[in-house]
Amino acid sequence: MTPDTEAELAEIIKTADGPLRIEGGGTRPIGRASNGTRLSTAALTGIELYEPGALTLVARAGTPLAEIETALEAEGQRLAFEPMDHRALMGTQGTPTIGGVVAANVSGPRRIQAGACRDFLLGVRFVDGRGQIIKNGGRVMKNVTGYDLVKLMAGSYGTLGVLTEVALKVLPKPRSTGVLRLEGLTDEQAVTALCRSLASPYEVTGAAHLQSGENAAPVTMIRLEGFENSVVYRAGELQSLLADFGAFTLDTDPEKTAAAWTHIRDVGPFQGRTGDVWRLSVKPTDAPGVVADLPGAEAFYDWGGGLIWLLVPDGAGLNARKIRAAVGARGGHATLIRGDRAQGAFNPQPEPIAALQEGLRRKFDPRQILNPGLMTAAEPLVTGGTSEDS
265, 292, 325: which is the final residue of a domain? Predict the structure, then answer.
């Protein structure tokens, strides 16, 4: 089912006599599979309001992400949270939509500096499990009283309601981008260098380390954005700050720098390769230890080490329990992005948080028909750790 209007969507949900499998563009099948009737928001398209001077954009949930990015590009603006395109990694052929981005709180490498998708979400309209149309938030960033449903909907994966419209804050694009690179660092050295750069006053907007770069050697990358003179100055200061790790080189070629961070954003190192792909979130300084505890897996680091992308080849002997035990022992959490969905994609929650989440779902979807079971973990909690996306 692909309704053309919000009212039609509301009627479908209100009269549904069984579970519904909510989809946007169908590009990121994350979570436990559902046998519910497919309900797509792909026909709810169109940018309803764009005020470049006010840095505000309002679009219907099914609007293709590419359409929004094209409109912003024409005005020299962008979505600062840098949403990932999952298609090459997941092997899907759909069209990413802005509603899907918000529903999964999809946020890329710039999150460490700018914030996540939810931090730019100003308002939402959605249909809950009763078929009621609900609006929350507005078109300006301000404090709210009562329930902040705007933030609640980001990362709920359609389990609380089906998004029909989102309002977002956008930001200007920088004039220049520079990337500092250094090959040959160990994981521990790289994370130490990245953490030092992020703790500096030089406004780093990307901090990543690949165990195997273009030349098959480890490569550490630090991104700076802004006016050209500022980028060059800050790069020089960081080169001095990190001199004990080696001589970082600066690349300011627009095409090369954009391609490098698209490669990081879209998990390019693991595209087209077999094996399960995990997204691990830990304290940056714990990241090398987590990877060392998972022999046989290949990793690369984003967010200065706070985000680990992990490829587990077939036959490596690393199942969900082992991975979550290694991450949970350090207070982190693990999300299965690609692999056997029966394992449960999302990290098991401590009992109080699990009870809170279940209470929210029953409040917004009392019949439990919206993506039922999608966010259900397949095993009990190993140790403390919470899900950033829920």
Answer: 265
pLDDT in tens, 211-231: 988 888 999 999 999 999 999
Contact 22, 162 (CB under 8 A): yes
Whether 137 and 227 map to the same domain: the answer is no
E strand or H helix at 251, and its extent? Answer: strand 249-251
Can you give the residue range of the structural domain that contains 300? 268-343
> Averaged over 140-144, what is the pLDDT?
52
97 in the same domain as 203: no
CB 181 within 8 A of CB 91: no
Q: How far apart are CA 201 and CA 182, in angstroms?
A: 20
pLDDT digits (tens, 9 = 90+) for 347-376: 888 889 888 888 989 999 999 999 988 887
Q: What is the pLDDT of residues 24-57, one digit of tens each?
A: 888 988 888 778 899 999 999 999 999 999 999 9
Which residues touch 187 (CB under 8 Å, ≥6 apart)?
209, 211, 218, 287, 288, 291, 292, 299, 301
Whether 93 and 215 share a structural domain? no
Residue pLDDT, tens place only, 283-342: 999 999 999 999 999 999 999 999 999 999 988 888 888 999 999 999 999 999 998 887
| Residue after which a domain boundary falls, among 140, 172, 204 | 172
> Three-state SS string across 16-29, please?
CCCCEEEECCCCCC
CA-CA distance, 237 to 225, in Å (whole number)?
14
The kind and range of the H/E element at 87 are helix 87-90
| Domain co-membership, 237 together with 293 | no
- Asked whether residue 74 is assigned to any structural domain, the reply reads yes
Local structure of residue 253 (DSSP, 8 states):
-
Domain count, the chain: 3
In a domain, 355, yes or no: no
Task: Give the global pTM.
Answer: 0.89
* 41: Cβ contacts below 8 Å, ≥ 6 apart: 2, 3, 9, 22, 23, 24, 61, 62, 97, 99, 162, 163, 164
Greatest C-alpha distance within the chain: 66
